Amino acid sequence: MITCYLKYVLDPYKLEAFEHYGKLWIPLVAKFGGQHHGYFLPSEGANNIAMAMFTFPSLAAYEHYRQTSMNDPECIAAFKYAEETRCILSYERSFFRPVFGNQA
Fold it and tell me: Which part of the chain is the NIPSNAP domain (predicted)?
């Protein structure tokens, strides 16, 4: 299992556009076999930082999603929306693996 963590730097005047962008991606991640854990928008503190997290069964499954999404019409439309609205100034992507306690 691999969880992708995305940290976004946003235009704080375009939070509604970013929220719409996030709502586009949640079902798309599921469409390609991932589980989305949501987008998290600024509330207190910095007004231009958001994050998202989603999980795939493996890094190979994530890579397949990345490759396939580049040719999917719905994904292309979501990428285009972010580009046209310029709601995202930059982002960074990190990957994590979970650690669980002992299970009986």
Answer: 7-99
